[in-house]
Automatic annotation (TrEMBL):
Key words of the record: ATP-binding, Nucleotide-binding, Transport
Protein name in UniProt: ATP-binding cassette domain-containing protein
Domain ABC transporter: 15-252
GO molecular function: ATP binding; ATP hydrolysis activity
Record-linked InterPro entries: AAA+_ATPase, ABC_transporter-like_ATP-bd, ABC_transporter-like_CS, P-loop_NTPase
Pfam families from the UniProt entry: ABC_tran
Organism: Pedobacter frigidisoli
Lineage, top ranks: Bacteria, Pseudomonadati, Bacteroidota, Sphingobacteriia, Sphingobacteriales
Top-level taxon of the source organism: Bacteria
Amino acid sequence: MLAKERTDEHSEKVIEIKSLYKSFGDYDVLEDATLNLYKGENLVVLGKSGTGKSVLIKIIIGLLSPDAGLVKVLGQTIDEISYAELLALRLRVGFSFQNSALYDSMTVRENLEFPLVRNRRDMTRPEVNETVEEMLDAVGLSQTINQMPSELSGGQRKRIGIARTLILKPEIMLYDEPTAGLDPITSKEINKLINDVQERYHTSAIVITHDLTCAKEVGNRVAMLVERRFERQGSFDEIFSSGDKQAQPFFDYNFIQ
Ligand SMILES: Nc1ncnc2c1ncn2[C@@H]1O[C@H](COP(=O)(O)OP(=O)(O)OP(=O)(O)O)[C@@H](O)[C@H]1O
């Protein structure tokens, strides 16, 4: 079954953002922004540089506070919970950084062990080994276990970064520009991995990207962040077959350079 056939608009909201406002001084980044992430879907957020996509992610994981509005993640209202509750919630939300953020002085195995050693002190050594091996298998890179990040290609580093985020078995994945800087073939492999992760681990995900191929291949739904709000939410085809003026610049950016 294709990923995009799975969206159930009536399913549970794992992230609920309602009338969100965020400004820095006089500069309004988000204004009356509303967006839901439904359980099990991959939601693509498309937005030009500087429109507030990183601010959105920081608000979702509680690194920035909203000025007004509701932000609920896995049933918890972000600015009402204690710091301890926030830390516990962050373990259920995996954030895959744009630059993969691997530790250069650690092997692939050590990079993957790191979140487990810090957060899962209950796990035995054989359990840690087994989980690391399972995650490497999930991203198709079992053979790199003893390599250093500098020995990996950009695409492999992205995959290891995703494996390291997945290792705590988060319910929600936040992918920040997962295909940035990759060639089209490697980008396709990452898109496939995002769909495989959804399928295998039943994650719900927000994928932030400028890459329309990525949006088309992984997005059960697409939301465009335009002028401080999430405009135009719908399937890729609904948004991009309409000749929409706000969607057109993304087409131009991707295909007419
Ligand atoms: N802590 C901060 N203090 C002041 N301004 C900020 C802060 N964080 C973000 N901004 C501003 O908010 C706006 C949105 O930034 P953000 O990083 O979310 O953009 P983005 O959509 O992720 O861009 P890109 O695609 O280039 O990564 C920018 O104008 C940025 O300068």
